Amino acid sequence: PTLRGLRRSSALTKAELRVAHLARRGRSNREIAREFQLSVRTVEHQLQNAYGKLGISRREELSEALAPID
């Protein structure tokens, strides 16, 4: 893991991190929302914030972006 990757991922809030981990594992926004009793819109917002902080733009990039913190 690179130090830069660790710094970016550590900037995520707990909510962003838990949503990003489930999205990385293939869960849909609707499934994530149901599990955490959130609206789908809130899940989308948290993912967009996480993408920005991680320097990515797509869900498919989450595995690589989150790898340093596993």
How would you summarize what this structure contains?
The protein is mainly alpha-helical and 70 residues long. It has 5 helices and no strands.
Helix content class: 55-70%
Main sheet summary? none
Rg: 11 Å
Strand content: under 5%
- Counting helices, strands and paired strands, the structural category is mainly alpha
Shape assignment: globular
The termini sit apart by 10 Å
Please count the helical segments.
5
State mean pLDDT (0 to 100 scale): 87
Order of helices and strands: HHHHH
Low-confidence stretches: none
Oligomer category: single chain
According to DSSP, the number of beta strands is 0
Give an overview in words.
It is a single chain. The protein is mainly α and 70 residues long. 67% of the residues lie in helices and 0% in strands. The protein has five helices and no strands. Helix 2 (14-24) crosses helix 4 (40-54) and helix 3 (29-36) packs across helix 4 (40-54). The N and C termini lie close together (10 Å). The mean pLDDT is 87.
Task: Give keywords.
globular
Write the layout of secondary structure elements.
Layout: H1 3-10, H2 14-24, H3 29-36, H4 40-54, H5 62-66
